[in-house]
Amino acid sequence: MPSLASSVAAEAALAAVFDLDELLQPTEREWQQRARRVARERIAPTIEEDFENGHFRAELVPELAEAGLLGMHISGYGCAGASATSYGAVCLELEAADSGWRTFVSVQGSLAMSAIAKFGSEEQKNEWLPRMAAGEVIGCFALTEPEGGSDPAAMRTRAVRDGGDWILTGAKRWIGLASIAGVAVVWAQTDEGVRGFLVPTQTTGFTATPIAGKLAMRASIQCDISLDSVRVPESARLPDAAGLSAPFSCLNEARFGIVWGVMGAARTCLEAALSRATSRDVFGGPIGRFQLTQDKLANMLLEYEKGVLLALHIARSKDAGTLGPAQISVGKLNNVREAIRIAGTARSILGGDGVTSEFPVMRHMANLEAVRTYEGTDEVHTLVLGRALTGIAAFK
């Protein structure tokens, strides 16, 4: 296990070359430091054990809520109304500990709570958002299906009217938090197009089953959902959600958090590699003195710094109200890809020990491979950018 002194030295050495903290406004830095304390003091001490055991440490949820991190970018209803940049910096600090905890905040806030805040009635907002912000109710966002992760337009889940109610039938897959959620935002095809519904998870016919055998995101929960003639009243429908643009707008909120979050994982891997390079002696001295090792470290730094600056640029655009979906695809595609590359290079510097839980790198590598897939694969975001550049859609 790397010593505390070597880890602190590596962190300081990295910050001496590039320090995100200096680029943040005071309020943004306050949010960042708050998340950093939670990540380092509460998540990091047990994350290797939790990953090994496939355990989601639910007792930490109230602590994240107390820190104001759940739905922090939403205004009102018990939420802080923080800036996009503040939220992004929080995502980076949480994912520096583990992708699963950034995912938790993302599913709760950027997906489930955002869907209610954007498309819900005042009654729905008042019923759910304050309790979700307080961590009293966990939400999930049920869009992806077993046969069409990248093709939500082909969803098979159906909602049909039955008097004053709706009957939902279908299946969803890879739904974060579903087995511990109190409410699910379920998207379904209707005769009028795609619509969203707030489904209390105790409703008859709703079943969420955690997916077993995961080799990534082991400290978080993803589920299969079965909807067997689930009956909900008309008041459960999100009144302002019409068509796929509604869930897509929520996905863009989650993708924004990913753009930032994966740079946290990259930072942790870079710091681990730097600590090892300056503390491990081979052939009569530290391996960091070799040109090949320094080349690796320099390239890792370049991609980390560029990724963080890209995230900051995207956040400033979001705060200014000028951010478009193509730039979110740029951020998600680039930063996940480069974070994976940084993690892989860090693993090579660590040598054989890099594949053990003595270091966090393999855990981050596995998690990042999952992050690469969700909220739009590399291929999907590549084609989004191709469409933006050419005006020609390569997929529907």
TrEMBL record:
Residue span, Acyl-CoA dehydrogenase/oxidase N-terminal domain: 26-136
Acyl-CoA oxidase/dehydrogenase middle domain: residues covered: 140-230
Domain Acyl-CoA dehydrogenase/oxidase C-terminal: 243-389
Keyword match Flavoprotein: yes
Keywords, ordered alphabetically: FAD, Flavoprotein, Oxidoreductase, Transit peptide
InterPro entries: Acyl-CoA_DH_CS, Acyl-CoA_Oxase/DH_mid-dom, Acyl-CoA_Oxase/DH_mid-dom_sf, AcylCo_DH-like_C, AcylCo_DH/oxidase_C, AcylCoA_DH/ox_N, AcylCoA_DH/ox_N_sf, AcylCoA_DH/oxidase_NM_dom_sf
Cofactor(s) of this protein: FAD
EC number from the UniProt entry: 1.3.8.6
Catalytic reaction equation(s): glutaryl-CoA + oxidized [electron-transfer flavoprotein] + 2 H(+) = (2E)-butenoyl-CoA + reduced [electron-transfer flavoprotein] + CO2
Pfam family, one: Acyl-CoA_dh_1
Pathway it works in: Amino-acid metabolism; lysine degradation; Amino-acid metabolism; tryptophan metabolism
Family, per entry: Belongs to the acyl-CoA dehydrogenase family.
Name under which the protein is recorded: glutaryl-CoA dehydrogenase (ETF)
UniProt organism field: Naasia aerilata
